[in-house]
Amino acid sequence: MKLIYRDREWELEGRMTVRQAIEKVGLIPETVLAVRDGKLLTEDTVLEPGDTVKLVSVVSGG
Known about the structure:
By secondary structure, the protein is mainly beta. The chain has one domain (2-57): Roll (Ubiquitin-like (UB roll)). It contains 1 helix and 7 strands. The chain has one helix spanning 18-24; strands at residues 2-5, 8-11, 16-17, 32-36, 39-41, 46-47, 52-57. The N and C termini lie far apart (35 Å).
């Protein structure tokens, strides 16, 4: 699977959850949202080989 975050890309092998994939590339899961084919994914969604997931920064403010 491929993870894309800003100007960085990672290729990961095998099946894993969104949370596991985010942690594997060294990001904090609570700081990004995962999107596949225009749909928001939950952290327990299982990613398959061939998936492309875009990670979007979470922005909060008041």
